[in-house]
From TrEMBL:
Residues 1-17 form the signal peptide. This is WD40 repeat protein. Keywords: Signal, WD repeat. It comes from the Bacteria. WD repeats lie at residues 52-88. InterPro entries: Quino_amine_DH_bsu (IPR011044), WD40/YVTN_repeat-like_dom_sf (IPR015943), WD40_rpt (IPR001680).
Amino acid sequence: MLRLPCLLLALCSVASAQPRAEVHKNTPPGQATMRLYEGGRLLFQATTPGLNAVTETKFSPDGKWLLNLTDQGYVQLWDVGKGVRVKTFLAPFARVLNADFTPGSRSLLLPFRGEEGERPADAWAPSFWNLSPLRWAAPLQVARTYGPNGQYVWREGGYSGQVHFSADGRRMVTTSFRRFGGDPAVVWDARSGAHVATIPRLPYPRGAGQIGGAGTVTARLSPDGSRVLVLYVDGRLAEYGAGTARLLKLRGTPAEAPAQLEHFGKTGR
């Protein structure tokens, strides 16, 4: 018997009551089948076009929405209760590495605009979309540079990698996949997209072989969003005022970094 390959994506939780999505690829060849479960109960099954390009799935915190990320330049939004695809957002690039729901499931954050803007460069602007009703809400207010003909050239920071929200949902911090930590971390207002602070690269210690400053790997906000803990590429952890970008202290060791980040995000300590 021919055994077709199967890819299991986005097991949201090991808890049986949590929803989960399974995308079985090449069933039949060139197509895919997506099944959504709640516990052991099948909620719905879909075979709509585009599922074979899915690389990751994410549920909203309330379990009502599902995002499918792809390596073909689009993101699908699904209504879990109705079992329907609500919208396909087209990206100006091929592989979509990230898209996230905000706390409270009020909106989603895309690494691109998701609809036509006033000029072609607007397509690259990371943006919020409100979920109910579904509509474009606001862009991240990223510092951008444009060429003489209005073409997009450069941006400092933005949402091209990871995002983590404060427990109260008011602020978020982004770090970039680009150049493996070459960019600084950036703190934003998680509802308006307004820029709050750019956390600088951390100068290397005196006598170190490197020059300049270390870029970020990841970061976490305290529960109230007032402080941010940043992990740098050289393993150092630094705590800053999230609204001022003022360095408060260095803390921990590289071995302690993962545990300290998670503890800080939950307790602020």
